[in-house]
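ugh ok so i messed up the first submission bc i forgot one of the chains. this is the corrected input, ALL of the components this time, i swear. 202 residues overall. if the numbers dont match what u have on ur side tell me asap before i send this to the collaborators (the ones from the other lab, u know who)
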Amino acid sequence: MTDEQRERKKAYLREWYAKNRERQIAAVGAWQRNNCDRANANKRAYVERNPERRREQANRHAAKPEVRAKAAARPARREWQKARNKRDSETLSDGYVRRIMAQHTSMKGSDLPQGLVDAYRELMKLKRAINEKRG
Amino acid sequence: MKNVDELRGQLAEVFAQLRAGAIKPGEAAELANLAGKMIGSAKVQVEYYALRKEAPTIEFLRAPYAD
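and heres the new structure output, hopefully the right one now
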């Protein structure tokens, strides 16, 4: 296929998609509803292949004015989240320690083995006690 | 010290000694620093194998009662 033919084909497909966009989206949606397992597996595989795309998408969603407004309209939830974070850092909960350990790495907190997390928790406790003693 | 469980036990011991005043904060800080290095290196090893999509047994992380 020559470059010119390729361009012509691209233009044709673009035009075709513009005409049939709604029908196409509806058909894909219907397939996903009828094949939940396969659709979910495909989505999971995509996220696995492109973790940064997922993060970008989540950030874009969170930055939308309507989403920000919704979050701002629920101050009680915000307070609850703050209290939970404070409690987690005080009690050194599993999730908190895992999150700290996974910072600046390519891993998720859940990838870390439990033994290592427990040892790191002891280390954090010790460091806090040292700082307390030093004043 | 052969594995992470023993390291945790040692850290708990140092913590108790520090609380009781049996050791000085400076000494405890040295031990904490060393333990941090050991944990950090084990973490790097875990990350390395995760990136290579391998799951070998890491001796340091293996529980003594695993076998």
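quick check: Residues 75-135 of chain A form one domain. that seems consistent at least. Chain A has seven helices and no strands.
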